Amino acid sequence: MSKFQPLSDYQQSLVDGYQLLPFRFTALDDREYVLTNQAGEFIVMERSTLEALVRHRLPATNQFYDDLKSKHFIIDHDSSVAMDLLPLKVRTKLGRLADFTGLHLFVVSLRCEHSCPYCQVSRQSDNKLAFDMSVETAEKALVLVFRSPSRGIKIEFQGGEPLLNFSLIRYIVERAEAWNLAERRDLQFVIATNLAVITDEILEFCRDHDILISTSLDGPADLHNANRPRPGNDSYERAIAGISRVRDAVGRDRVSALMTTTKLSLGRVREIIDEYVKQGFRGIFLRLMSPYGFAVKTKWFKAYDVDEWLEFYFAGLNYILELNRSGNSFTEFYAATILAKMLTPFEPGFVDLRSPAGVGIAAIVYNYDGDVYASDESRMLAEMGDKTFRIGNVHRDRYEDIMTSDALLGPIEESFAASVPMCSDCAFEPFCGADPVFHHATQGDVVGRKPISAFCTRNMAIFRRLITLMRDDDEVRRIFVRWANSR
Amino acid sequence: MSCRLVFSSQVYSVETIKKAAYRFSDVLSVDIIPRPHETECILHFISGSKEEEQAQQIVAAFKNEVLDQDLRSIISKETEAIRNAVLAFALSKTGLQGGE
Fold first, then answer.
1. Which of A97, A219, A278, B72 has the highest Cβ tally under 10 A?
2. What is the pTM of this model?
3. For A148, nearest residue in chain B (alpha carbons)
4. In what order do the strands lie in the sheet with A152-158?
């Protein structure tokens, strides 16, 4: 008669020891630590458990042992499958690297009829045609667009106000579509517009060519109009009317909105979120101001610090969670991006949270004058006189020269987070990114000293808060899993 | 305002202490003086005088960070070969290089 082996036989197989796999750890709070493996899977435990783990004193009967094994922090003689699975998971996370540049921004005009004091692109008054991109420049830029090996190509029209040069948008869209008949890429178009000058003709064109509209909405009318002055002081009214017109003419899901936090926004996060709910948006991106353009010149960028913004952000996040608990499905998109990194096998590809940095290799900018920049922030910096991240010119340089220029490869290599002081042993590195342009702008160095980096302070605080919220509340965890998988 | 700490060289490497010092470089500058059996650290508070309690908290956090860096060093040494193998596989044959 067959018989099970005694219990001691199975226990024996587990006390033979384990081998550590690569992982990082960082304090979550006074009590616990976050551990992440190379693929970004994480576990939270007390320091005494962590120390026992590292010193090979963790018994197989410990409550964390199986979790550590299944998430590839350790292997033992029972299973070494992690040695096959972990590289596959890391490769999946890094998969976007091979896609190369997917987002191509065309600055078709630097002109704008708004005069926002926080403008980060240093717009020009709307009668200076010298700041419009020419057809010749657009043609040369399109050649570069289709040199990218990416299967997905998204062309985004930026400004100033790009609709002030709509004839060129029309030209680029039609030329790109004709080109794509042979290329057969997944081709998408986005216009980033304040909607103030949109016409029925433009709407019809957007409908016919399936163009997405990305607009600005800073909150309720008084806040939006104070942030975004224009002749007639009717920016809000035009934006709301424009959103409605896009939905009617192009499609309900064809318009999205972005907000920028100003000093005037602080203390009003609930009203801002309520405005987005009222306008029928599914979520909001609570976005802080960047240190570029007029935002620096007018000192609006320095009007609040990272701690004040975090207070604003967390108040907003709490309110959005309240909405979700009461049955209103609404997402904070920055958190959702990070949660996708934490809770799914995939890398969402948000340019600011990529390492190697997304400059040039994820997104690239063709400026109105033909200069090529490594990112939107790079051209913002250039309008302030700093052309560090100008990587070429569409009229003078070949694709190979641009993509292998020292101005591009140097910052990407130097800022690679996995080999940067402090980032290299930070548990949050798989969720974070390298932002060489921000650190150059704020510290004069593409790597930057992380202990004094606002980028680091802000993101570390958000990572800690998201993990703490999930640890402490199962309902929040369920909401976050939904956000992570909804993008 | 400054504070003196001594770490045993048998327990903590200079590298470990340097990493901890870097992490605190927003509030401290640290003189690291290696000797045969110990490493002396002089912690200088950057923003000048601190309340005694606040200074003690920073010093305690610095000591904990040295402990953490020591653990990180153990993990790093033990897993170096695997870490490199995983990355080598994950970054191989991306299709971006010619001839692959």
1. A219
2. 0.93
3. B96
4. A255-258, A212-216, A186-192, A152-158, A103-107, A363-366, A371-373, A390-393
Q: Which domains does chain B have, with CATH numbers?
A: 2-90 (3.30.70)
Q: Which residues of B touch A86 (CB under 8 A)?
A: 86
Can you say how many angstroms the Cα of residue A308 is from the centroid of all Cα atoms in its chain?
21
- Portions of chain A given CATH number 3.20.20.70: 98-403
Residues A148, A155: Cα–Cα separation, whole Å: 12
Q: d(Cα A9, Cα A60) in Å, to the nearest integer?
A: 14
ipTM attached to this prediction: 0.90
Which residues in chain A land under pLDDT 50? 13
- On chain A, the residues whose CB falls within 8 A of the CB of B23 are 422, 451
Is 70 exceeded by the pLDDT of residue B99? Answer: no
- Contact yes or no for B94 and A97 at CB 8 A: yes
3-state helix, strand, coil in chain A (%, to 5): 50, 15, 40
> Encoding tokens for residue A293?
């353009």
Distance (Å) from the C-alpha of residue B90 to the closest C-alpha of chain A?
4
Radius of gyration of chain A (CA): 25
Instruction: Scan for tokens 């009668």, then name that residue.
Output: A127
Average pLDDT, chain B: 89
**DSSP classification of residue B19:** H
CATH class belonging to A98-403: alpha beta
* Angle (deg, nearest 10), helices A454-472 and A474-484: 120
The whole-angstrom separation of Cα A181 and Cα A415 is: 38
